[in-house]
Amino acid sequence: MSDYQLPEVWENPANIGGAWGGLNQPTAGARFEQKLPVGDKPLQVYSLGTPNGVKVTILLEELKELGVMEADYDLYKISISSGDQFGSDFVALNPNSKIPVLCDQSGEQDIRVFESANILLYLADKFGHFIPTDFVKRTEVLNWLFWSTGAAPFLGGGFGHFYHYAPEKLEYPINRFAMEAKRQLDLLDKELAKKSYIAGEVYTIADIAIWSWYGQLIQDKLWPKAGHFLNVQEYKHLQEWAYRIAQRPAVQRGLGVDYKAIQ
Length: 263
Fold this sequence. Notes:
Domain GST N-terminal: 44-131
Distance between the termini: 47 Å
Low-confidence stretches: none
Order of helices and strands: EHEHEEHHHHHHH
Mean pLDDT: 96
Strand order of the largest sheet: 2-1-3-4
CATH architecture of the domain at 135-248: Up-down Bundle
Structural class: alpha+beta
Domain GST C-terminal: 134-263
Pfam families: GST_C_2 (PF13410), GST_N (PF02798)
Protein name: Glutathione-dependent disulfide-bond oxidoreductase
InterPro entries: Glutathione-S-Trfase_C-like, Glutathione-S-Trfase_C_sf, Glutathione_S-Trfase, Glutathione_S-Trfase_N, Thioredoxin-like_sf
Number of helices: 9
């Protein structure tokens, strides 16, 4: 049993411990002046190769493979462990200080786009690929795209945090979030037993969003031995989908793309 006593009013401790304990703060906004580099490609991406970050590079590589030259981009590394996301230029692009961020400088006015699912939707709509034009089919894609935004925090910030990043292993939160992670995996497995891709028979941004978290988990590429811990081998339909998408050349390029330093 923990000896923690719940205070009447929470106060920020000097360091809560764990991998990110000394970095996170209960306040938003810029912490230091920063000048981010800007390249000459139509799209500027400030990101990192996390599950949320690779969603964007995968889609951009898929678009480039289709010959969409307007999807060319400069890619800059935001080291979240160093706190780059709290610099003034980055906060101006995303007040929430989270990667990835896209700046579209192809038009008369620069457009900032933040939140990974919104970036996927923006690019799909802008270039007319990986999202259906049919209203009903488009709605089904958005069902699953927004499912991913609600579900993935339980996987990453919940299970992943307490399984891998927390300073001590605690039975209750690990059991709580492992159970939820397996419920989500079972849901995806049951859905993919009925169709080739998550929203039907066509590969879309919903697959990219979900694969970046759950496909990599199925391949045991997120946290050490997490796939084994969650016994992901039992999800046969999800396994087949995950490995099929992993073989796409644009997915492989999106995972392996080089990031430029910001300074």
